[in-house]
Amino acid sequence: MASSSSSSSHAAAPFFLLLLLLPQLCSSGVTLPDQFVDPTYPPERPAEAAALFSNYGGPSVCKPPPPYIPVAVFPHDVDPVQFALNLEFTEAEFFLHGAYGEGLDQIAPWLALGGPPPVGAREANLDEETRRVVKEFALQEIGHIRAITRTVGGIPRPLINLSADNFAWVMDMAFGYPLNPPFDPYANSLNFLLACYLIPYLGINGYVGTNSMIDGYKTKELVAGLLGVEAGQDAVIRALLFERRGEAVAPYGMTVAEFTDRVSELRNRLGRCGAKDEGLTVPRELGAEGAICTNVLSADRDSLSYARTPAQLLGILYLTGDERVPGGFFPEGANGRIAWSFLGANKSPGN
């Protein structure tokens, strides 16, 4: 991990950009272009109904108790939380393009801090119910990027490879041979859900690992909130796939459960630190309390989420098993001081 005593010039850039963008970042949300607004939403609640949800309990009920350590963000909180933006950018662009055919540059370009647009992302051929789920996830990721940037400052969006070729490469690695035809995440709803299985789960691992590295009360509040929604997203994806676990993925003849097992095994190999990932079915001894083979949620023997370090996550996302060798989803490497520290002179905030 990069030291928090890294050069002040590295630290100044994100916070300077944050100050420039403060009016946009401190708003409660964004004004969505028409194509991102759901025209089927229900009518507004009448005023008397809304009053039922008001803060009638007063400050003693509605406000949390004061923190034991009254420091909102410690300097050492910044790098690990900023590192999470690499995954949040990846999820945002994949979900946005998959559901809408447009990305962060069309809805909230200032959040990218000048980083390049993703490569190969496009609209997926989704059924209506899957599209609604993915749209919600996409818009949630915008909020995640905004909240992180507002709390600890931002980093430029890295170059992200979301091409069908890259996802095909992942599946080929998972199975150990080239699938024919190459896997296309954008071809249909099932393929897109299988591709979604690749990324949000790593966000859970990352936030669980980050929690022990931070101390500020605002930072902990942020990470807890992020972890809650990322875990929810992953649970929805896994549940949708679990319903179809015995279904053959056309035209490959392997079931949905086999795909998830192979992807989880790949992530464990690339992560290099033991089994921290499980597919939709497991041997009974690995199931909850050693009593069940179904595995809707991936968890350890105490049914707690697994943690991964930034180095482990980068090895998986680079598809190289080495945090020092970029590739895969980040062909030029991830951004932020932690990711840059592994790349040495090959990458820095100034190049």
| Global mean pLDDT | 87
The largest sheet is: 2 strands, antiparallel
Order of helices and strands: HHHHHHHHHHHEEHHH
Decide which structural class fits the backbone: mainly alpha
**Shape annotation:** globular
Please give the share of residues in helix.
40-55%
How much of the sequence lies in strands comes to under 5%
The count of strands amounts to 2
* Count of alpha and pi helical runs: 14
Brief rundown of the structure:
This is Desiccation-related protein PCC13-62. By secondary structure, the chain is an all-alpha fold.
Topology overview:
Elements: H1 8-20, H2 22-25, H3 47-51, H4 59-62, H5 75-100, H6 104-107, H7 128-152, H8 164-175, H9 189-196, H10 200-211, H11 217-242, E1 248-249, E2 254-255, H12 256-271, H13 310-317, H14 337-343
Characterise this structure.
The longest helix is centred in the first third of the chain and has 26 residues, at 75-100. The protein contains 14 helices and two strands, in the order αααααααααααββααα. The model is unreliable at 1-26 (pLDDT under 50). It is globular. By secondary structure, the protein is mainly alpha-helical. The protein has a two-stranded antiparallel sheet. It has helices spanning 8-20, 22-25, 47-51, 59-62, 75-100, 104-107, 128-152, 164-175, 189-196, 200-211, 217-242, 256-271, 310-317, 337-343, and strands at residues 248-249, 254-255. Helices cover 48% and strands 1% of the residues. Keywords: Signal. InterPro entries: Pigment-catalase-like. Residues 1-28 form the signal peptide. This is Desiccation-related protein PCC13-62.
